Amino acid sequence: MNNKFLNNKYTKTYYAIINNAKIRYWDGYSETHHIIPRCIGGDDESSNLIELTAHEHLVCHLLLRKMLPPGENYGLIAAAWRMVNMEDENGNRHRVTGRLYAKLKEEFSVSHSIKMKGRAAPNKGKKEDRSEVLENIGNAARKRDANKKTCPHCQRQFTPSNYKQYHGDICEKNSNRDPNVVTVKTRGQKRSSQQKANISAGSLKYFKENPRGLMPQSQKDSISKGCKGVKKSKEQGEAISATVAKQIEEGTHYTQQPKKQCPYCHVQASKARYNAYHGDKCKHKPVHVHTLAWTTL
Prior knowledge:
Blueprint: H1 9-23, E1 31-34, E2 49-52, H2 54-64, H3 74-85, H4 98-116, H5 131-147, E3 149-150, E4 157-158, H6 160-166, H7 193-209, H8 217-227, H9 234-250, E5 260-261, E6 268-269, H10 271-277, H11 289-295
Helix pairs in contact: 1-2, 2-3, 3-4
């Protein structure tokens, strides 16, 4: 018995199956099994290999995941999960109950999350440069473009799935569209106060754990340089004008909101602009001599 394994009923059952397979005669279909799995140090020597029936092989892998303490059994859970989902050349799988399948999936999800926590994605910061991969990506993109359909109402091209979900007879530009058809489930729905509170709490927690600090001046200059002199398209201008007109009509435009006067520059500004540019952030706010002395040390 391997010293890594726990001394429990699963380990005893596992070795009972292994020992029985060593002394019995079997001439039917069999699968080669590593007695000590390779993920925990097992090798490919003949002494570590055993021929098992397909059912025994599956049972052994289901037992193995229970023979190591949590946190050390990721590879064994992953192996059991692969066996349950693996298909042979005829498309057949090991048959398991729905309860066992759900339990395996949950165990694999939890153990995989623990293993990957804090690890950067292996492809982060890397640029694909393999010619065969780039060629496959290009061929897939060209194939998608060839299959795109043009919506007769908005005159735009979409993939078949996107077209079916949002366009054709249910396109928003279709004047004869059934008004009872909603293409997006969340459209027109307002978040509840509980949803807003959860989003706010999650955002505050994230930024508290991952403080970004002030934007460096170099980044501000880069954004300013990139936006300077760039004119909005005609469509963008028309969309902005329509939005502003709608806000003015509804009385929600910032020019119609109560204004607050800045104590330093005496400019009256809406709540959003006041919070962004005035009050303690106002550039006309005087700097005390002792504060200036400390900041220049």
